[in-house]
């Protein structure tokens, strides 16, 4: 059973940056790809970014592209999301997810999920 634990959320002003991390319970990201999703209050969960297990493929939502960077640190078995130029529209609970090799954008492709970390961007 893979367990994922997110960290790094918090309150930041518009234009600022945050780095989210997702720690896995085992040698997860050596064979599993990762994804980040978010859910804003009153909205559906939406895809943010995905990366393959060998980091050769990345994919971003249109709102994340150019501002966010997803990465895997195999030595630490950690999935990260560097978020720059944050806006109030980025306020949400952010979830990391994992699946074998690569999951892309559909949430249904991911087998394991973290509990989420809150990100609040003030104007």
Please describe what this structure looks like.
This protein is mainly β and 123 residues long. The mean pLDDT is 96. The protein has no helices and 11 strands. Strands 2, 4, 5, 6, 9, 10 and 11 form a 7-stranded mixed β-sheet that branches. It has a 4-stranded antiparallel β-sheet with strand order 1-3-8-7, with no helix packed on it.
Shape: globular
Q: Sketch the topology as an H/E string, one letter per element.
A: EEEEEEEEEEE
Distance between the termini: 40 Å
Number of helices in the DSSP assignment: 0
Structure classification = mainly beta
Helical content, roughly? Answer: under 10%
Residue-averaged pLDDT: 96
Strands, total number: 11
Low-confidence stretches: none
Set out the fold topology.
Layout: E1 4-7, E2 10-13, E3 18-24, E4 32-39, E5 46-51, E6 58-60, E7 68-73, E8 78-83, E9 92-100, E10 112-113, E11 117-122
Descriptors for this entry?
123 residues; mainly beta; seven-stranded mixed β-sheet; four-stranded antiparallel β-sheet; 11 strands; globular
In a few lines, what is going on in this structure?
It is built from no helices and 11 strands.
């Amino acid at each position: 059973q893979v367990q994922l634990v997110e960290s790094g959320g918090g309150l930041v002003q518009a234009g600022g940056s945050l780095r989210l991390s997702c720690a896995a319970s085992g040698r997860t990201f050596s064979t599993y790809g990762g994804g980040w999703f978010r859910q804003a209050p009153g909205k559906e969960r939406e895809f943010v970014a995905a990366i393959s297990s060998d980091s050769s493929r990345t994919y971003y939502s249109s709102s994340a592209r150019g501002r966010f960077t997803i990465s895997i640190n195999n030595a630490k078995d950690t999935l990260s999301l560097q978020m720059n130029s944050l806006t109030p529209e980025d306020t949400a609970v952010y979830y990391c997810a994992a699946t074998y090799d690569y999951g892309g954008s559909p949430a249904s492709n991911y087998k394991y999920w973290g509990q989420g970390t809150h990100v609040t961007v003030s104007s």
